[in-house]
Amino acid sequence: MKLFLFVTVLTLALSACGSEEENDNSSDEGDVTDEKWEEIQEVGEIVVGTSGTLLAASFYDGEEESEDQLTGYDVEVMREVAKRLDLDISFEIMGIDSMLPAINSGRIDIAANDIEVTDKRQEEFNFSDPYKYSYSTMVVREEDNSGIESLEDLEGKKAGGGATTIYSQIAEHYGAEVITYGNAPNEAYLRDVNNGRTDVVVNDYYLSKFGVAGFPDFDIHLHPDLKFHPNEQAAIMAKGADELTKQVNSALAEMREDGTLTELAETFYEEDASRELEGDFIEIEGLDL
Hints:
Layout: H1 3-9, H2 35-43, E1 45-50, E2 53-54, E3 58-60, E4 70-71, H3 73-84, E5 88-93, H4 96-105, E6 110-111, H5 119-124, E7 125-127, E8 132-141, E9 158-162, H6 166-173, E10 177-181, H7 186-195, E11 200-204, H8 205-214, E12 220-222, E13 228-233, E14 236-238, H9 242-257, H10 260-269
Parallel strand pairs: 1-5, 1-6, 9-10
Antiparallel strand pairs: 2-3, 3-4, 6-14, 7-14, 8-11, 8-12, 8-13
């Protein structure tokens, strides 16, 4: 994948990240039925909400914003899931703040956009089994790490982020002022760190890595020492859509077994993000997710 593609389409507005608890919607559940799965079977198509601006999860591989050029890890995972379920697939492009309401309204069947599994979200939605594992880090100015050497140093700093993301919650938890963006391209976030309008972007390791690589002229880098909040990403569906969840999990299990998830992760992230990570990560206490 060429670097100039990274430059034009990546955004750090979201990532949604993860809980370490086992997902209750595992693929070995008993037979269940739900209206959502029946509707999908009748239509023969899954409708997936995604942003189209989040490299390498969901982005356009070219200048034309057509569905044929929409790609990314989450996008291709969902395409493969649909293929294995013998269903067509279409994508609705929207910001992360619109995805969960769109699930509840029935506008989309699934949201797939590097979305973190959290306890609160599991109370309101069904999640698939995780298909990406990551952790949080920061993009800071290379010259001085934006004056941040610990999570506590976020106090009083300006952090670029989406209004409702886990990453913004982390920044606020440590006393940062969050400067919010819409469904903006990555350049907006990173340029503001570079020029001093903001000090930091708290985000997913993989997404941050590609963002920094896409703008070599900016005075930014990944913080060399801070690795925190290990997490899991998965597809999200309506609460009670248990048969749909079971079917998606069955396809994901096949993809993990035959190596498809690994192949897709290495294609888009240059590392096998589909496997659980090993290492020492800072756990954040007192954050209600």
